[in-house]
Please model this.
Amino acid sequence: MASQADLMTDPVPVPDHIPPEAVFDFDMRGDPGLLKDPHERVLELLRVAPKVFWTPRNGGRWVVMGHEELFHASRTPEIFSSGLMPADQMEAILSMIPEDQPRIPRATPITMDPPDHGVFRGPLQKAFSPRAAIDRTEEIRKLCDDLIDKVIDQGHCDFISDVAEPLPVTVFLRMMGLPTERLGEFRDLVHEFLEATMSGNPMAQAGLSRKVADAMLDDILARKDDPKDDIISLLWQTEVNGEEMSLDLMEDYCVLLFIAGLDTVINGMGFAVRHLAQDTVLQEKLRANPELIVEAVEEMLRRYSFAIPMRRVAEDTQFGGWTLKQGDWVTLYYPGANLDEREFENPEEFHLNRESNVHIAFGGGPHRCLGAHLARVELQVMYQQVLKRLPSFRLDPDKSASFHSGNIIAIDTLPIRWD
Model:
């Protein structure tokens, strides 16, 4: 495993348009505080850094920590673009790739802006609707019980590897129509892909996109002529802009769903159970009043948000008190926005009855998380079954939780014990 020093990126020169008072040295991948206790470090950053600042680490980028600022950026795609580069520039680059070279898939529609984003997001809406999520409740409950059955008698487990990882990943693989026996291989591939996105090397990112698509290619092709009850089959039967589905677009869709579906809810589950393991009073309150679990899920999502998407500045703009130039990169730091004291009173505290808990753990604007409904169902069922099946649990005093950071604040291990 890499040391903390290895994870720190070298700083880059500060561009001329960025004043010294806008600069704050923060490495979103290798910051020692993030790797020790991520959300405590985020609270510290909110106290000592501007709500919007520029860091020379990670290739140089703006970091948006403030709730109001982040919400505005999320809803202004004409300025804060999700495209890696302007569309005409992207098409020019792709046209230069020799025909005998492997095609580079693009994560569609997350790298698009309106109006194209809405057109290409539409075919996915049915598969991730509230009704579709609710219909999977009992499947999720059974799988959760099966995972708990494997560890309950031993009195301890690593909650991440034993429950939080296999639960949502298995559900997602079943939804997609991908083989669940490849879970470990797929998870390793997701980690490799996310590592490449933090490298700043576009060729590495492109190569990993191709590798992800190739890992699913046989299953994608099989569903074209032999459809099943899964998302890949549904997409093959869908028209976009009046045109039949193509293999190229199928790869684009599947790369996005693969990356988004295999590395998100795990962390929501992990951080929540970590909090519960340190608060036995809250455990007992939720056991006695399971109807409060819905509120508990929302407050945990606010308190321990984990997603950190990127945007590209599409035109010069004034934002957060600074001048942002076309081509600057911006990090939307959801964990900071949901701990902003200007929006949430005593944000470091967990309150089941918090008023106006308008968190943005799932983002805002046109790119609000497509899987939010499914994530909520998975989290609610996980709380229900863990609190129902396990006695009072606590952090393992002999083993520590571990974390990593980048485009997601992730919890890698969570040893817990119960009597």
Residues 42 and 336 are 6 Å apart (CA to CA). The mean pLDDT is 92. DSSP finds 19 helices and 14 strands in the chain.
